[in-house]
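Page header: ASSEMBLY MODEL / two components / 291 residues total.
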Amino acid sequence: MIESKEPRLTHASLKVLRAFLDSPRVKLSGAEVHKQSGVFTGTLYPLLLRFEKAGWLTSKWEDVDPKEVGRPRRRFYRLTPTGRARANAALASVSSRSGEAVSWT
Amino acid sequence: MDVIWWVGAVAGAIGINLIASELFAWGPRLSEWLMHRAVRRLVPELRDRMQEEWAGHLQMIPPGLWRIVAAAGFYLATGQINVALRVHLLEMWLGRNERRIRELLEQLGQDRSELRDATGRLDLELSPLGILDGRGLLDADEIATLQHVQKRGERHVQQARELLEQIVRCYEIEQQIEKGRYRSRR
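Prediction written out in full:
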């Protein structure tokens, strides 16, 4: 079976994954990920899309009527169980290589 | 000197303030314009989604320079997003057509095997004429095989051309002999 390629883990992509793992909220909008990770929007959205296509993230529109709330709907991203496991593994690997004793829960 | 420095500093401060207020005033328009330009550069499958998502993102940033920077980021992101989506679509297509691709590859393997057999037979038939010299064709990898076939093909074409010239020359001599006009060059 030809499987979807794993996303390449760069410094920016690790920061995005860390933002999800560190956040007390399960789902985050693109703007919130941008704010928490500090990753530039030009890098952030391609990363979110790659993670989503690789099955690490899922995304869903918020359940509101834009006319009622007077603003555009937000799209929320959340880690899938696979994504959470891979993100933990990737960040643990980076931590062990850099000698940090950090646990990403 | 001090006076010039102070005048310059005040003028600079006023200039920066003017630019900042202009950016603040034009920020929302400029950022929206950049976002729309970015959306237009996207592949059609993603336009509606990103239009709404990015509008929501910009709405969360106060008007000003950072909103423009975020919108510029959207514009810069479009190339990578398009590539990511196309790669994903290609992978999906490969996944759906994997069986057919494998069948074609298997068929190609059989064709190569048949071609090798045919080439071997051709070699055996024509080697007494000294035209062909190839052995072990198609045993190398794909590219090397293709290069080999190409080189060999060119050599064969050259050999065939030379042979044809000899045949034509023989035919001409035969004609001249028949007409009694032949004179040896020796």
